[in-house]
């Protein structure tokens, strides 16, 4: 004769509803009940279950094949209603589904709770003491409108911290405007920042407002400021000193009313020594320096970041909770994350896209995380290189690295050991596109 154990369950039998309520604990996954019970009826038991053990799934199995009873039981919270004689397979299928649903609901609740613990400070995760301190400082400086200089490796969260500062200190609804310095050639960057008058240069068919104007009353975030062309630097310095600027090709002096947050992943001292960055501008920018440590120096943040990122992915894909098996979790937390938080996002995005049952296992992780190597090993050049010129090799290295970084130029630059600006220049020079 088949037993509950054969269907993956262990049964605990009781005679009365009262007894059932008393013996319910975390070990019980689902309640199977009849309606005609001695003492408390099945309907009463369903009501008490709902009140005293909300979320505990139940399945009714009864001889009474009456539609109104079934409706009442389901209304009182039963997951399913089956009548005798019954099919054993069907019954256990129903019990399995009911207990699975509860599991998923519980995971969801836990995830929600852990997320609200993990991200108490705005949108940024900060579990590591060094990050908690950093965010405290950021919060203090947020309302005072002084220029902030954020430093840290690529993908470490400089952009996120800039937004955090803006959100913590800016007037509600005020603009947050980003300009990525290496993304544009010098002339376009100038006009992007300062705007231009009609006819200022070929193609300037009408007056255009620049990002400095667009950031009025809010925050201008200058990303990768270390790559700002040398001859544009005095113009920015003037704006910061005089709080005024002119559009390209214009005469009118316009008031500059914005808070500057600048970010860089380069060593300013070296740039200044090499004559590629003005020392006076550096001092103007370095009013409140905040350094974001690389993720490998704050491993406490990794699990919380993973939870937040996975919750974001399931929300975006409108799927259920994505879990990480403990062996995979161990590899992920042991990994050094040279590409920092952006790399965590990329790895989880990919792993969650290919995994089965919304569970990320070791096999779903990239080989360099499975094996504990650095990702550089994954950027292998093609075999049979003889016959390629140095230039072709360079093109190939850039192409493959960009592909490995999913088109993220800052990350590709870091892996290739060159400036982000050089990646843009080389892509332009060699006609490398992202597709
Ligand atoms: N502490 C954090 N909590 C939550 N998300 C974070 C955190 N830090 C970074 N992120 C997320 O990681 C991604 C990369 O961060 P961000 O773009 O801010 O890095 P960055 O240092 O500005 O990189 P780059 O130098 O390449 O511009 C973003 O999607 C960001 O929202």
Automatic annotation (TrEMBL):
<keyword id="KW-0597">Phosphoprotein</keyword>
<dbReference type="InterPro" id="IPR003593">
    <property type="entry name" value="AAA+_ATPase"/>
</dbReference>
<dbReference type="InterPro" id="IPR027417">
    <property type="entry name" value="P-loop_NTPase"/>
</dbReference>
<keyword id="KW-0804">Transcription</keyword>
<dbReference type="GO" id="GO:0006355">
    <property type="term" value="P:regulation of DNA-templated transcription"/>
</dbReference>
<dbReference type="Pfam" id="PF00072">
    <property type="entry name" value="Response_reg"/>
</dbReference>
<dbReference type="InterPro" id="IPR002197">
    <property type="entry name" value="HTH_Fis"/>
</dbReference>
<dbReference type="InterPro" id="IPR002078">
    <property type="entry name" value="Sigma_54_int"/>
</dbReference>
<dbReference type="InterPro" id="IPR011006">
    <property type="entry name" value="CheY-like_superfamily"/>
</dbReference>
<feature type="domain" description="Sigma-54 factor interaction">
    <location>
        <begin position="124"/>
        <end position="353"/>
    </location>
</feature>
<dbReference type="GO" id="GO:0005524">
    <property type="term" value="F:ATP binding"/>
</dbReference>
<keyword id="KW-0805">Transcription regulation</keyword>
<dbReference type="Pfam" id="PF00158">
    <property type="entry name" value="Sigma54_activat"/>
</dbReference>
<dbReference type="InterPro" id="IPR001789">
    <property type="entry name" value="Sig_transdc_resp-reg_receiver"/>
</dbReference>
<keyword id="KW-0067">ATP-binding</keyword>
<protein>
    <submittedName>
        <fullName>Sigma-54-dependent Fis family transcriptional regulator</fullName>
    </submittedName>
</protein>
<dbReference type="Pfam" id="PF25601">
    <property type="entry name" value="AAA_lid_14"/>
</dbReference>
<dbReference type="InterPro" id="IPR009057">
    <property type="entry name" value="Homeodomain-like_sf"/>
</dbReference>
<feature type="domain" description="Response regulatory">
    <location>
        <begin position="1"/>
        <end position="99"/>
    </location>
</feature>
<dbReference type="InterPro" id="IPR058031">
    <property type="entry name" value="AAA_lid_NorR"/>
</dbReference>
<dbReference type="InterPro" id="IPR025662">
    <property type="entry name" value="Sigma_54_int_dom_ATP-bd_1"/>
</dbReference>
<dbReference type="GO" id="GO:0000160">
    <property type="term" value="P:phosphorelay signal transduction system"/>
</dbReference>
<feature type="modified residue" description="4-aspartylphosphate">
    <location>
        <position position="34"/>
    </location>
</feature>
<dbReference type="GO" id="GO:0043565">
    <property type="term" value="F:sequence-specific DNA binding"/>
</dbReference>
<dbReference type="Pfam" id="PF02954">
    <property type="entry name" value="HTH_8"/>
</dbReference>
<keyword id="KW-0547">Nucleotide-binding</keyword>
């Amino acid at each position: 004769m088949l037993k509950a154990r054969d269907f993956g369950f262990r049964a605990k039998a009781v005679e009365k509803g009262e007894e059932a309520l008393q013996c319910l604990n975390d070990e019980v996954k689902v309640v199977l009940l009849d309606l005609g019970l001695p003492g408390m009826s099945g309907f009463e038991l369903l009501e008490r279950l709902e009140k005293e053990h909300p979320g505990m799934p139940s399945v009714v199995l009864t001889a009474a094949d009456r539609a109104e009873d079934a409706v009442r039981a389901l209304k009182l919270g039963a997951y399913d209603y089956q009548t005798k004689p019954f099919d054993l397979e069907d019954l256990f299928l129903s019990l399995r589904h009911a207990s699975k649903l509860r599991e998923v609901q519980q995971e969801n609740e836990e995830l929600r709770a852990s997320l609200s613990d993990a991200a108490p400070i705005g949108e940024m995760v900060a579990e590591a003491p060094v990050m908690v301190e950093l965010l405290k400082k950021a919060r203090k400086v947020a309302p005072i409108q002084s220029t902030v200089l954020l430093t840290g490796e690529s993908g470490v969260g400089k952009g996120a911290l800039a937004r955090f500062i803006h959100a913590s200190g800016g007037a509600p609804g005020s603009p947050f405007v980003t300009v990525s310095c290496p993304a544009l050639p010098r002339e376009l960057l100038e006009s992007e920042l300062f705007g231009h008058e009609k006819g200022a240069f070929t193609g300037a068919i009408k007056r255009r407002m620049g990002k400095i104007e667009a950031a009025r009353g809010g925050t201008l975030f200058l990303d990768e400021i270390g790559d700002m062309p040398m001859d544009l630097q005095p113009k920015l310095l003037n704006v910061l000193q005089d709080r005024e600027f002119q559009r390209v090709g214009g005469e009118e002096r316009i008031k500059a009313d914005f808070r500057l947050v600048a970010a860089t992943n380069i060593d300013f001292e070296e740039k200044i020594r090499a004559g590629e960055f003005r020392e006076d501008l550096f001092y103007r920018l370095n009013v409140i320096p905040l350094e974001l440590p690389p993720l490998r120096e704050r491993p406490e943040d990794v699990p919380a970041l993973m939870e937040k990122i996975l919750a974001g992915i399931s929300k975006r894909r409108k799927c259920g909770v994505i879990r990480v098996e403990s062996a995979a979790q161990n590899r992920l937390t042991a990994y050094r994350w040279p590409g920092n938080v952006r790399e965590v996002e990329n790895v989880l995005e990919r792993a969650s896209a290919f995994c089965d049952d919304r569970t990320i296992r070791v096999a779903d992780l990239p080989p360099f995380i499975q094996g504990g190597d650095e990702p550089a090993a994954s950027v292998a050049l093609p075999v049979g290189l003889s016959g390629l010129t140095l230039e072709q090799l360079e093109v190939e290295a850039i192409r493959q690295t960009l592909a490995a970084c999913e088109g993220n130029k800052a990350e590709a630059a870091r892996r290739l050991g060159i400036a982000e600006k050089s990646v843009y220049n080389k892509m332009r020079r060699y006609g490398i596109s992202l597709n």
